[in-house]
Amino acid sequence: MATFADIEAVLFDLGGTLVDYPVPSWPVLAGRCARGVLSGMVVGSEGRLPPATEVPGPDEAQSRRRAPGPDTPVAHRVMAALRRVVRSVSGRTLPNMGEMCFRPLMARGRLFDDTLPALRALRGRGYRLGLVSNTPWGTPDYLWGSQLERFHLAPLFEVACFSSEVGFRKPDPRVFHAALDRLGVGPERAFFVGDDTGADIVGAAGLGMRCALIRRPGHELPAGPAAPDLSITSLAELLDVLPGRDQKP
Q1: Nearest to residue 167, comparing CAs of 157, 159, 177, 158?
Q2: Nearest to 159 by CA among 135, 196, 185
Q3: How confident is the model over 152-181, as pLDDT tens digits?
Q4: What is the DSSP string of 167-228?
Q5: How far apart are CA 148 and CA 160, in angstroms?
Q6: pTM
Q7: Domains plus CATH for the chain?
């Protein structure tokens, strides 16, 4: 078995790795989105779902977003421009509607039973923890940051990088670099855990990170072009290969 005694930081994917977000069929998805908007616009306050987060105003939203650079993908530039137009025309109305749409989908997420025990154990062993996650359908990072708060994950991570904030999606190496740079750790001393071979394993391994593919029972994704250093079915298995940082190999 490979040894990982020189690892300093462990980075994780979010959905499918730490949190289970059931993906319904398209008709059910559309119905839940419509229900979320209805609950926010029509239903009385006593019948509304709890908000996923407070939608930031234009100035705060702009301050959170990294300024595009010369290598920022065109798609991200277009999405950022559309967001600015939407906010300038509607204030908070349309962003709030988007938040209402996703609220019932996020509300169905649940933390996997092994997530908190494994993360706390790794922190206790001296590892620095980070998150690198793609955000679906261009959803803003603040929505997903609120999920870290909801599940009590935020205090465990030193950094959390979402694709909609950074401007690149896994497996692009730049989204991994964003997290590693903030941690001040090189890829050769970092370990990545994800459930998607194409996005997580290809991206992390291509950068020189060692990685584990987690195959949650009933959530297995098709095999991809890259092989992980470790294949697991529970995050608890990480504790078998990642010893305390003060322990001798």
Answers
A1: 177
A2: 185
A3: 999 999 999 999 888 889 999 999 999 999
A4: S--TTSHHHHHHHHHHHT--GGGEEEEES-IIIIIHHHHHTT-EEEEE--TT-PPPP-SS--
A5: 9
A6: 0.74
A7: 9-21+110-240 (3.40.50.1000), 26-107 (no CATH)
